[in-house]
User: Fold this.
Amino acid sequence: MDKIIQKYEAIVIGASAGGLIALHRIFSQRCLDFNLPVLIAQHICPNRESLLPELLRQHCTGTVKDAEDKDVITSGNVYIAPSNYHLLVEPDKSIALSVEGRVNFSRPSIDVLFETASEAYCDALVGIILSGANSDGAYGVSQIKKRAGLTIVQSPDSAEFDTMPKAAIEASNPDFILSLDEIGILLNTLCNRG
Amino acid sequence: MNEVEQVENERLEVQLLLEAIYLRYGYDFRKYASAHTKRRLEHRRALEGLPNLAAMQHLLIYDETFFNRVLLDLSINVTEMFRDPWFYKSVRELVVPYLKTYPFAKVWHAGCSAGQEVYSMGIVLQEEGMKERVQMYATDFNELILAKAKDGIYPMNLVREYTANYQQAGGKSSFSDYYTADYDNVVMKRFLKEQVLFSSHNLVTDGVFGEMNTIFCRNVLIYFNRDLQNRVLNLFYESLCPGGFLCLGSKENIKFSDVAHKFEVVAEREKIYRKKRM
Ligand SMILES: C[S@@+](CC[C@H](N)C(=O)[O-])C[C@H]1O[C@@H](n2cnc3c(N)ncnc32)[C@H](O)[C@@H]1O
Assistant:
C-alpha cells in the first residue's frame, strides 16, 4: 500500500493489438484534476496516421499530441510516440525520438520508452501494460519494478489479446493486475495525492 | 547501492567513455541525446559480454577496430527512398520552383547516410528538368556509410516500398527507370550520381559549407541535445543564401534554437523553413 501513497511524476503506457479500445476506456474515466503527464507507445502500422490523439483528446484538458523531439514533458499533457519513431525520455525529462531499427519487431517499442523513462524518473514512474499480441514491454516493466516505480498490468482475462499482459506479468510480477475500469480508478486516486 | 545512485553512476561511466572517444579519436558524442547514447553503448556492451561500461573503456582506447564498431552503433543509419512521400511532394511544389529561379544552384544533404535521400532528390530534379543546373553535396561523418551512398546499391527487397513511396511523392515516370537490377540488388543509374559530390563532414566539429540554396538535414538533429542542435542550426543558417530553404525531419523543430526568428515557416508539417532576407 505504500506504493499508492507515494508521489508520482509521470505515467507510461504500452499497448498493441486491442490497445486503442483499452486506452479509450481508461481515459474516459479521467477526472478533471488528473494532472500527471502521460507518455504512450502504441504499436500501429507505419505510414498510417494514428487515431489515438483524436480519440483521447475528448477526455483531456491538457494537450494530446504526437511527441516532438525536445518537447519538455509537462504535467497534464499526453505524448504519443509517432508512428515509425522510438520515443525516449532524457534524464532532464524532455523527449527524444529515434529512428533506430525495430526493437521486438516494433517501432515505437514499449521497452525503449519504459526503460529510458525509468532511468529518468526512477521510483516516481507508473508503468502500465495493456492488451497486445506480442511481448514488447515485458522487459520495460521489469526495469520500472526494479527501480521501485509502480507497475500495473491489464488482467489477461479482461484483455482483447492477452499475450502482452501475460508476458509482462511473468517478467515482472507487477504490483497490480487489474481490469480497465480498476486501472482508471487507481490512476485517479494517484493523481489526487499528487 | 540504491537504484538512483546506480543510474547516476552509469551516467558517469557513459560520460567518461564519450570523453575517452573524443580524446582518442576526435569524434565528439558528448552532446548527443543521452538516453539514446546510453542505449546504444549498453547494446554493444551486452553483445561483447562485458560486465560494465568501464570495462568497455579499455577496449575502446586500445582497439581501433572495436571503436569503429561502436561508431556504427552510435550513428543510426536507418533511411529510405522518398521517406515521408508527402514531404517530397512539397519539395517538388515549393522548393524546386525556387531553385529554378537560379541559373545554377547548390543543394546540401547533411547526414545523408547511405544516400537514399540524395537519389530521391536527384530523381525529383531530373523530372523537373533541373538536374544539370544543380550541384548536390552529400555529406556524413561516417565514412563507411558514405562509401555505400556513393555506390548507390540497395537490396532488391526494399524496392517495392521505395516504388510505393515514389508514386505517393508524385513521381512522374516509372521508378524502374532509375535503377538497373541484378539478382539481389538494384544499382542507381549513373546519371543520378553525376552532379553529386560525396564527402566526409562532421556537423559537430566541422565548419560552414558555404552558399547553399537548400539544405536537407532530416532525422539527424534528433540525436543531438538542445545545445548541439542550436550550434548546428546556426551552422545551417550561416551556410544558406538569403531566401534559401532548410528541410528538417518531420518530428524535428527549430523553435528551441536562437536562429528560429531568422527563418520563416514555409510548410509546418513538412518542416520546411526559409532563411529570411535581413
Ligand atoms: C537516421 S540517419 C538519417 C538519414 C537521412 N537524412 C534520412 O532522414 O533518411 C542519421 C545520419 O546522421 C549521421 N550523423 C550522425 N551524427 C553526425 C555528425 N555529427 N555529422 C554528420 N553526420 C552525422 C549518421 O551517420 C546517419 O547516417
